[in-house]
Amino acid sequence: MSLPDEECCSTLAVPFCVKSAAIPTPPNARSVQHEDTAITKSSDTRTPSSYMAVLAAAFGMISDGYQNNIMTMVNVVFKRLYPAVYTSAVSTRVSNALLVGEILGQLLVGVLCDRVGRKAGFVITTSLIVLGATLATVAYGAHGSVAGLFWALSIARGITGVGTGGEYPASSTSASEAINERTIKQRGPIFLVVTNGILSLGGPLAVSVFLIVLSAAGQDHLSTVWRICFGMGILLPLSVFYFRMRMLSPRLYREHAIRHHVPYWLAVKRYWRALIGTCGTWFLYDFVFFPNTVFSGTIIASIIKDGDIKATAEWQLLLVTIALPGVYAGIFLCNPLGRRRTMMLGFLGYIVFGLICGCAYDKLTHIMPLFIVCYGMMHAMGSMGPGNLMGLVSAESYATPVRGTFYGISAAIGKAGAAVGTQAFTPIQENLGKRWTFIIAAVCGTLGIVTTYFFLPDMTGVDLAREDDEFLQYLIRNGWQGEVGEVIEVITEDTSSTIEKHTNTKE
């Protein structure tokens, strides 16, 4: 099929078409040849774009880490301020509000990233985090109602959750594609540094901010403490909002995106095994990790004499800091050991340290430093394996046209596991005892090893563009017809033009 205003050439055994457009060539531009068709492109467009996408992902993930961890100590404060109102049910509702929002954000922004663009996902998530954090900071119940305060906080945290949840597909897909442009061999370690390596700093940052504010305001002004802590969460996303507005989607997305008539059913038929693997392992990890993170402050406070808030925060800071070496061990191991083996090693840590903490709980809690070390090692092993690798594996397992969507589904299933775990955490403690939260972690570690071994692909050292090409050939063999590619922006000093580039699979 040919059109008067199109020039076509053969790529991947299908017609490749570029609609012609009159674009003036600026002095600083260079001509880039694609087969027989010349595309005028600004000489500095590609390089800043890939680096900015990586930096934008990094700053987004630390914001998410802060928001996920700030409730750990705020829960302790609320139990001290409002013991009669802040019951287990209310505590769970406020904590789960973020999770419910994150599930929605991961699903919606995941699709948005594929259909509209990675940049659009960044802008929307940043805006929602700022809005949600602002509402949480100024939350107030009607006529001073404490119950109304916690409903207001639930809504605010839900909005924040949509933003932080959307960060997962937006940041991870963009970072993996941008890094793939620069290096395939080191894509895994660099991706982990700028995503989970930064995300993991959110825990120590949140507890450190809490300790600083608590020391400055004093324990007689706890209402001021929790509001300032929520308010600090506004600054992180605001600091990168301008740069996110300026970035472009990575080149891999611009060349391989499917924006209309996306063949989701064909994609599911191709990736069903990987989807079970990424969804299942993420569910198991978050089922254990999130409630143990959110409620670790209350666990520590129940062990410490008089439940002193400052002492609880100090032990909490040690707990989250012990987990950090695990993150960087995973970064080091993901290439030489491979993605799957590193994942299974992390789940093995859940089995070992979960059983140690669970079976020896009564004795360990009488030796606080030893309990914190064992508890922290369980987190460290989880962070080294599934906590580190889930984002990377989910970003690598799928082709670019559906990467955001399937990544979002996997992350959303993971957060559903976190919500279920958070909901079940208190009943497990009350009916079975605190030791069983750790024993169940060991059971989840066993299931995680099985799921990883049988369902997860290992994309160590594989070029993402190769999977994109194979996915396109798979679609063509199955009769799909559509266009691949998006509008390419050509930005110069004095003009801004666009040309549309797409692969047309229709004959």
Record the SSE blueprint.
Blueprint: E1 6-11, E2 14-19, E3 29-34, E4 37-42, H1 46-81, H2 88-115, H3 118-137, H4 146-182, H5 187-194, H6 196-199, H7 202-217, H8 222-238, H9 241-246, H10 251-256, H11 264-294, H12 296-303, H13 309-322, H14 324-333, H15 339-359, H16 361-364, H17 368-384, H18 386-396, H19 400-431, H20 435-455, H21 464-477, E5 483-484, E6 487-491, E7 496-504
Antiparallel strand pairs: 1-2, 2-7, 3-4, 5-7, 6-7
Please sum up the structure shown.
With 507 residues, this protein is of the alpha+beta class. The chain is 71% helix and 8% strand.
List its salient traits:
Growth Hormone, Chain: A; disordered N terminus; 71% helix; 507 residues; five-stranded antiparallel β-sheet
Task: Describe this structure as you would to a colleague.
One of its GO terms (cellular component) is plasma membrane. It is found in: Membrane. The chain crosses the membrane at residues 120-142, 190-213, 225-243, 282-303, 315-333, 345-364, 370-393, 405-424, 436-456. The protein has 507 residues and is an alpha+beta fold. The chain has a single domain (46-466), classed as Growth Hormone, Chain: A. Helix content is 71%, strand content 8%. The protein has 21 helices and seven strands. It has helices spanning 46-81, 88-115, 118-137, 146-182, 187-194, 196-199, 202-217, 222-238, 241-246, 251-256, 264-294, 296-303, 309-322, 324-333, 339-359, 361-364, 368-384, 386-396, 400-431, 435-455, 464-477; strands at residues 6-11, 14-19, 29-34, 37-42, 483-484, 487-491, 496-504. The strands form two sheets. Strands 1, 2, 5, 6 and 7 form a five-stranded antiparallel sheet that branches. Strands 3-4 form a two-stranded antiparallel ribbon. Strand 1 and strand 2 form a beta hairpin. Helix 11 packs parallel to helix 19 and helix 15 (339-359) packs antiparallel against helix 17 (368-384). It is globular. Residues 1-47 and 487-507 have low confidence and may be disordered.
